[in-house]
Design a protein that fits this description.
The structure is a homodimer of 334-residue chains.
Chain A lengths: L2 H4 L7 H8 L3 H9 L8 H14 L5 H8 L4 E7 L5 H16 L3 E7 L3 H11 L3 E4 L5 H9 L4 E3 L9 H20 L5 E6 L5 H17 L6 E5 L3 H11 L5 E4 L2 H13 L9 E3 L16 E4 L1 H16 L13 E4 L5
Parallel strand pairs in A: 1-2, 1-3, 3-4, 5-6, 5-7, 7-8
Antiparallel strand pairs in A: 9-10
Helix pairs in contact in A: 2-3, 2-4, 6-13, 9-10, 11-12
Chain A binds a DNA duplex (30 and 30 nucleotides) through helix 3 and helix 5.
Chain lengths: 334, 334
DNA sequence: GTCGGCAGCTTACACGTGATAGTTCCGGGT
DNA sequence: ACCCGGAACTATCACGTGTAAGCTGCCGAC
């Protein structure tokens, strides 16, 4: 029966607009897309625009994508570790830049299962994809098959792993350089025991080791600690008399260390200097206020987005870490 | 010339699979979709599957969506205020549930501009949309035109505003009830000066006011404070002798208050009890450790996802706040 | 007066998929 | 001898869009 077809309210298509305006569908398309090389009198143009407005016409993205072969979606694949305000600023600024180019940015948290990513670009067919870790060759092949034209970081170029390698090392390096500048000669590095943060932690501690080597110092003692006051207190006791300053993987680890020190009656930076990373809001209100490394992630988001757009046009990405992307925020703890 | 067409590597379609398998495209479709009502011998089935595997065939989402009228994408529209681990768990669990139903979840941060949302569902044509705030009637009309079948919260039902009203009030109510249970009779509520958090803050403070009214107490004094130690110190001085306990909008505000108290030589909870909200990791390491309200956001994510799926099938959403969704985490500060 | 050219349209195809309505072939019942 | 019915496929349409190609007047130029 006809009821079956009437069940779902019919979509308004350009055919409806054409009928409403008394013109052909092609003319409607020419007007709505400002197709160059067409001569359309202003009267006709207005007739189409008003008809479209009256009916509330919205072009149907799947059909448009099917026809043109290109979608207006960009997707950022985020890791499933907890994201702070740093990532929020990153995504927000990137979205602004992409939006100006007509792209809509969405994010997808990747929980680690193999086929989750495949289903993502199968369901979305984005024009561009950015990930925090380099994609495997299998993933890249799948994306190419799905017709995705711009991918960052492209696994082919080894130095392009923005977050895990380059970026993380920069953070660790800056932490260590600050402590060395304060006269410390024997450092420790405290990693989080959250397994998903292991790769990033390795990057940051390697950066600190680089800075130490450059200053002619021994590499930091690397310890993985649980976020528990009693546990950190014991670790701090182990450090006493050996190291005079500690780089924490992030501000939360740093706060845990400060809490452990507090139970021992120790205080930073006199007994042990502590520096964090990521500049979470709570760090300012610690006792003592936490010295940390802030990442200008908004700026990075803008540059990533611009690199994606450049890739879409077939140019080289050109993505580098700039001075000023990472900064020391000096408070009292180091 | 033909070069133009060869420029972009051709997409592998079901036509290619059909040719490879020596069958028609229809048969390929029947096999790959397990279309019921077809009798296909196992040999043919394997022939198709292996051909598809060999060529690395992936169905093209836009064409599939165009044909079926339904996409496999769900999108969560998130506000642009900074998101903590609470929201991460929420999205992660919801994604799991939706994934089991064949839907891919993506998130989109909405920066507030009017046409950003319109472009979102124009570019994505999601099957389902969830937002943290109720949508305006104009937005709903646009989504219906774009063919989105499930939207939560639907603006029609007034009590369905999960986050801003129901959820936020529940948090404020629990904060106040805990303090009242500790014997406090005169409370204050401290809001953040971040303008984007104003609506949520109003909801939480209203919940606290409800709890006070229920206990026969006066409503809390509501103060908006900047996240600055000196500013909070002055506000705390103003409270002295008047209120004995304060609910903070969130843990960051609470930490700022504790820092302000510290500069005055005061300590919680003896001089002023402080309770936060959201249970950020750093709260455990404050001095004193912060009592707060934890939201079981993972559970909520699951229920929201299930409600979306139910809506997709045409049933009523049935979305309520359950006991156990919000819990007091009692530490030392209150 | 005929004809090229251009403004102002329309007709028709392609994109890749899902599914309906067939078509062919073959074995078995009457 | 005939047909019925099911197994195993295939031909074809529809989805909504962008655009290349074609069509019709009308005006000015020779």
């Amino acid at each position: 029966m006809a009821e079956e077809k009437k069940r779902t309210t019919r979509r308004i298509t350009s055919v409806d607009v054409a009928r409403e305006a008394g013109l052909s569908r092609a003319t409607v398309s020419f007007v709505l897309n400002d197709t160059p090389g067409q001569s359309i009198p202003e009267a006709t143009r207005q007739r189409v625009l008003q008809a479209a407005e009256r009916l509330g016409y919205t072009p149907y993205a799947p059909a448009r994508t099917l026809r043109s072969g290109r979608s207006d979606v960009a997707v950022f694949v985020l890791p499933d570790w907890p994201q702070g305000p740093t990532m929020a600023a990153f995504v927000e600024r990137a979205a602004q830049v992409l939006s100006r180019a007509g792209l809509t940015l969405v994010t997808h948290v990747h929980t680690g299962d193999e086929q989750g990513l495949a289903r993502l670009w199968t369901a979305l067919t984005p024009a561009a994809v950015f990930g925090m870790r380099p994609f495997t060759s299998g993933e890249l092949a799948g994306m190419r098959r799905a017709g995705i034209s711009a991918v960052l970081p492209a696994a082919e170029e080894p130095g392009s792993d923005v977050s895990t390698t380059l970026w993380a090392r920069g953070v660790g390096r800056l932490q260590a350089e600050h402590l060395i500048g304060k006269g410390h000669t024997r450092l420790a590095y405290a990693l989080s025991d959250e397994p998903r943060l292991a790769a990033l932690g390795r990057g940051r501690s390697e950066g600190a080791a680089q800075a130490c080597a450059q200053a002619g110092l021994a590499a930091p003692t690397v310890t993985t600690i649980a976020l528990d006051t009693e546990v950190t207190a014991r670790v701090v006791e182990g450090w006493r008399g050996d190291v005079s300053a500690v780089c924490a993987y992030n501000d939360e680890v740093a706060l845990a260390i400060l809490a452990g020190m507090r139970t021992l009656g120790l205080s930073a930076p006199a007994d042990l200097a502590v520096i964090g990373a990521d500049d979470i809001p709570g760090g300012r209100f610690a006792a003592p206020p936490l010295t940390t490394v802030a990442q200008n992630s908004g700026e990075l988001g803008i540059r990533i987005a611009e690199a994606l757009l450049r890739t879409l046009e077939g140019q080289a990405p050109d993505l580098n870490l700039l001075p000023g992307d990472i900064q020391i925020v000096e408070r009292a703890s180091a």
